[in-house]
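@channel sequence for tomorrow's demo:
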Amino acid sequence: MNSSVMNTYNRYPITFKKGQGSWLTCGDGKKFLDFSSGIAVNILGHNHPEINKVFSEQAEKIWHVSNLYTIPEQEMLAKKLCELSFAERVFFCNSGAEAVEGAIKVARKYHYSNGDLEKNKIITFSNSFHGRTLATLAAASNPLHTDGFSPIPEGFLNIPLDKDSIEKSISDNTAAILVEPVQGEGGINPVSKELLIFIRKLCDANNILMVLDQVQCGMGRTGKLFSHEWSGIEPDIVTLAKGLGSGFPIGATLSSEKAAKGMNQGSHGSTFGGNPVGCSIALKVLDLIEKENILLNVNNLSKLLFSGLEELIEKHNDKISGVRGRGFMIGLECKIKNSIITDQALKEGLLLVNASNNIIRFLPPLNINEDEVLEALKKIDEALSNLDI
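structure tokens (generated this afternoon):
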């Protein structure tokens, strides 16, 4: 097809016409079980009737006024997120990369407001991913993503994710440590409870802010609303997006009062951030997570998915070798090229997502049922069995 769209994606030649729950339907009527969720976005599946209702009702009232005016829906969402978390302040934007950009600015402005003008370096980690803006690309420091975009912004130190490397990298200029509690694009790498506690203590001892990028691993995907809850720590800043709108673009930078002290009027902004439609939908998403017992569903059915994948590893040990992750953020380790398996799974009617380090991501809607988990296991089994390797 001769497309006028910029050629930045290697798209599958498939067009979906309808989505319902955990399923997508092509124009020819073929159905696909969606275990990609738009890359961890559609946490409540497709076409959730209550989300559609809120969208329609708010759209008939008002879509956009800008942040020159008070937006009641934004105020309500900020209050709700603060009630559910450590946070006391929230900045709204439209995507995960914007949320991380906001977190970087909040961290640096905090130290600037304290008179620590040289305390502006941010420690990040190998295999991380924080977005596609220049600053977030610099944070992850992945040559596959940064090549051709020089000069890349300075001020980031990308190191291995281990205690010794972190401790040795701390200096008087360190402003923040930015980490994903579960690395997503990097291959589903959960950070241990012990390491997160270690980072928290190190930050406290050195006047450093702890920033957790939960764009992919937040909003219930690991079985807790915020993935850091598994470790019992409280961060200074958290970034959210993806599942926050369950398909509608919205992002958020959550911060403690202390960390946000430098963010005064004019220090940051977003034309579309916190618009009435996005905030109304996010409020309903949070309501449904509680009302539909989504976290319980994740914790119960993820055990079934993990155990099923472990059985498939024994059966297909020439093609797959391990499984890791938490909740419904699961990585399957491959012995053959991951795309060979996901391409075959597509033929069987199962949508999966590749990640770095030859990993396949399983990122289903958080409200899937037991039958759909079993169907996904059946389809990946068929895909592996039908591969002529």
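heads up for whoever presents: Residues 50-291 form a domain with the Aspartate Aminotransferase; domain 2 fold (CATH 3.40.640.10).
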